[in-house]
Amino acid sequence: MLDVRRLRLLHALSVHGTVTAAAEALHVTSPAVSQQLAALEREAGVALVERDGRKLVLTRAGHVLAAHTQLVLDQLAAAEADLASLRTSVSGVVRVGAFASVALLLPRVIQVLRSAHGSDVELFVHEMEPEASLPALRRGDIDIAVIHSYNIMPRSLPTSCEAFELFVEPVNVALPLSDPLVQQDSVDLSVLAERPWIMPRTDASCHELTQRACGAAGFVPRAQAYCDDFGVMCGLVEAGLGVALVPSVARRPGVALRPLKQQVFRTVSAVVRHRADGQPAVRAVLEQLRQV
After folding, report:
1. Angle at 213 between CA 210 and CA 214, to 5 degrees
2. Euclidean distance between the first and final Cα of the chain, in Å?
3. Are 210 and 221 in contact (CB under 8 A)?
4. Distances in Å between the alpha carbon of 93 and those of 85, 280, 285?
5. What CATH architecture does domain 169-264 belong to?
6. Would you say the CATH fold of 90-167+267-291 matches that of 4-84?
7. 261-277, pLDDT tens digit by residue?
8. This prediction's pTM
C-alpha cells in the first residue's frame, strides 16, 4: 500500500521542481523529503527519482505515479469538502487569489463577512493573475481563484475544478473627455489605428486581448506606454498620452469609456476545486462575491 503522505511529497516535487521548494511548500525539511521519497520508492518497487546533476528529478515511473497522485489528492479534497458540507457552523480560513482590478472590491466582501460571521470566517487575499491563481488552486495553495476570460479569448479550467460566474462586463475604449469620439455611442476600433496606445504589459492576458481586438479591426496597436494597472492606464489616457482598452470596473473621473462596435466582453468567475463550494466557509465567501 502506497502511503498518501509520501505521495503528497512526490506530487509536491513534480509541481515545484526541487526538493527544497517541495519541502518549503509542505513545511518540512529537505532531508525529510529525500528520506520519505526513498521510502516511497521501496513501497513502489521502482525508481521514482534520479539525479540530474545536483538536482533530483522524476523518472518516467515517477511522472506516471505523480499523475495518478493528482487524481488521488483531488478525490481526497472532494471527500473533505463533502464532510465539511455536513457541518452547520460557518467557520474557517478561506484563501482567495484574485487579480488586481477585482481585488479592489474584496474589502466590501470582508466587511459583510465580518458583519455576518465575526472572526469565524478568516479571509486571506493573494493578488495574482489567472495564469498564477489557477495553478495555485490546483496545488491547493488557495481555495478560490477569481479569474477573468474574454469572449474572444476563452480560458480553460484545470481538471477537477468548477467555475461560478460572478458578472459579465463590456470591454471599452478609454478616451480623454476632450476626444471627439466621446460623442459617439460606440467606437469602431479601426478609427484608432493611427492613435498611440496605452498597453498592458506583454506577459498579461489583457495585452493579448488588445492585440487580438485591434488585429480583428485590421491594425497592430502602436504602444506608447506599458503598465500593469488599469487605473494608471486611465490616468495616462486622461493626460492625453494615448487610448486603451479597459473593462467597466476601471471607470474613473476624467476618462470617458465607450463600448466597441465589435463587442468584447469580460467574464469574471470564481473557480473552486470540485465540490469545494459545499464547505460552509467557502460557500459564504462565494455568496458574497456574487453580490459584488
Report:
1. 80
2. 47
3. yes
4. 15, 11, 10
5. 3-Layer(aba) Sandwich (3.40)
6. no
7. 989 999 999 999 887 87
8. 0.76
